[in-house]
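Take a look at the protein record below and tell me what you see:
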Amino acid sequence: MAYYHQANPTVLKKIILFVTTIISLQCAAQKVQPLYPIPTKEQLAWHEKEFYLFIHFGPNTFTDKEWGEGNEDPNIFNPTALDCRQWARIAKQAGAKGIILTAKHHDGFSLWPSKQSTHTVRESKWKNGKGDVLKALSEACKKEGIEMGVYLSPWDRNHPKYGTPEYNDVYIATMKELFTNYGPFFELWWDGANGEGPNGKKQVYDFKRFEQAAFSFQQPLIIFSDIGPSIRWCGNEKGFIGNTNWNLLDTAGFARGLGAPHVDTLNQGNFNGKHWIPAEADVSIRPGWFYHASEDDRVKTPDELFNLYLKSVGNGGNLLLNVPPDRRGLFHPNDSAALMGFAKKRAEAFSHNLFKKASVSTNNQRETALRHLIDENDNTYWTSDRNDQVVIQLKLPYPETLNAVVLEEMIAYGQRVIRFSIEAKQETQFVKVFEGTTIGRKKIATFPKVATNEIKIIIHESKAQPVLRSLSAFYIQSIY
């Protein structure tokens, strides 16, 4: 027979009160005032995607060009074995969170039977004019559980109304078709390309109207361009974001295309920017953006792709990797193999967090939530009680070889850290192994491998009290 002890109600109430008080004190100690500007919940969700694919596909795939003229015979577009499910399946296996498709490139050819154009898949012999790449990809992404985005070039080298005020109405009607029939989209991708149309004139884009229309068709929505409004170009097409990368940007007085901020500003952001507009790094897995058979042996290697990841996601931004389908409408085996190798390298690199069993201490008063730094929970964080010379010390149970430390700010409260360094204990003294500036959503700090059982992270300067979500450490075999 079991006997149960009935607790004294008074004692039980005191215990509950004590525990509640401790939790309340910890929460109060962790209460943080946002440092504006801060990201919207949609931007926060975008930050967490990290990596997704771009797909350039259209008449250029068959003409071996990068920029079409707009006068191509629609019949040239004739993929013999189009399989968007293959695209989506490989993307998912590679760890990509979505696919952005060139629904219409500069040549004006629409990959769906648009009512706003006579230069579309409807006019081609592909599937007897009954084909629809947008529909096929939308269905494939849903089946594979990844998201879909679209690139809709404002420049149209085919449309007869391009270069007239009426074209802005055409462009908005074209967007409406996409959002109504194929959305929702996780990202709408714009550039500022603005060349001549078939009448020899350039278009005066009404981007303000374009933005208002896009948000009316879908809310929430992330819009990419040189100056946002949601996310920005990183200033190059090489996939590299600056070591210093503020998620902030000033946009007053700037425009998309030739009126954009300097590429250095786009790459690094503005220290005191008025808007939260983080950086996206676009780069192709091949030298070109569209498929060219001559580039089949020039696909970036898994090591090269991993290095791009370190220099984009590892500097607080997102990576948009272009993988162009071939003339069959399939990813080439070389591209697929590179993507699988890239996924394997990321998995191997970040599979064993050496800080997971570390003990953590600091030089300030807020000790209670320090374990949140290494609990691998994205919803927890630790904040300091001071702005500068914040020292976080992590002691491992025994010496480990490492060459990378990953730091994350809790960017929901803003971006704060200005300058930090990492030191590793060597015998009886600490030696600096890394010196950095911004952290943001994620900083992957890499350095020559070192064997140690103790690491110091020193935040030398911060706009406000640092709010850190996570610290982790790894030994990565293929850093270069």
Q: What stands out?
A: Confidence is low (pLDDT under 50) at residues 1-29. The chain is about 25% helix and 25% strand. The CA atoms of residues 314 and 444 lie 4 Å apart.
